[in-house]
Amino acid sequence: MRERGTPFLAPQQTAAKGRDFGGMWTWFFRHLTELGSRKWLSRTTGRLAKSRASRGFIPRFARTYGIRVEEAEKALRDYATLNEFFTRRLKPGMRTIDPAADAVASPVDALVTGAGPIEDGTMLGIKGQDYTVEELLGGSPRLENYRDGYYIVLYLSPTDYHRIHVPVDGSIIEREHLPGRVYPVNEFGLTRMKRVLSRNERLVTYLTHGSRELAIVKVGALNVSSIRYAEPQRPKAVKGDELAYFEFGSTVVLLFQDDSFIPREDLAVGLKVRMGERLGQLAP
Hints:
EC number: 4.1.1.65
Mean pLDDT: 82
Distance between the termini: 74 Å
Function: Catalyzes the formation of phosphatidylethanolamine (PtdEtn) from phosphatidylserine (PtdSer).
Order of helices and strands: HHHHEEEEHEEEHHEEEEEEEEE
Helix content: 10-25%
Pathway: Lipid metabolism; Phospholipid metabolism; phosphatidylethanolamine biosynthesis; phosphatidylethanolamine from CDP-diacylglycerol: step 2/2
Subunit structure: Heterodimer of a large membrane-associated beta subunit and a small pyruvoyl-containing alpha subunit.
Radius of gyration: 21 Å
Enzyme class: lyase
Structural class: alpha+beta
Strand content: 25-35%
Number of strands: 16
């Protein structure tokens, strides 16, 4: 029975109301995420993950996300905190680095969520949104090198190994920290939030291989207390060496200088790659 004052809705109106309800929840979660993206909240989560009290969550966390614990450098019982487990190294030999001199190796275990040519400084259609190189690099004067280059977006889920490795041999010529928020970079964040890749905190490493330049943009995310460089930091980069690591899931964006990269034939959104796997090759 209809309550007094409640209008009767025809079936098609009911369906429309349902769609509006879904839109309301999208609005709600978007604004809730806006509130949750404050750095102090992310740091609070980070402190919990680094506390001894978090150790008991490790087995459940590993089961929930289907983490291949047999690949981890240590047994679960030997990790003192959840953060230590999350930033775990792998046993030697768990990943193969493509040995070809011109091969660009994936720096991470990840899902490809964007890839394609950069058109006049714009990366088109990353989960329905366009980004400019200028905003992603925070207005760096180096952005001109990538105006007609190539980009790859690599998303790391909680399941993935979270250390970031060098994709090509070369020299590190600059490191830059770009402060920002910590919005989620998962499907919801990339499709429902506005321009999260360029609004989140980022660490950018610029690397040269011969005459070519490559930018490795490490994008922070919700509940990431920090992005850290591996120590010691060296000016020389060797393919496969550790470069940095995330504390909880995030994204790496690779930017290739104009006319310098040839993607592998099946490189496309939805491809799952492992660290060391060939993404393509440097142009001759």
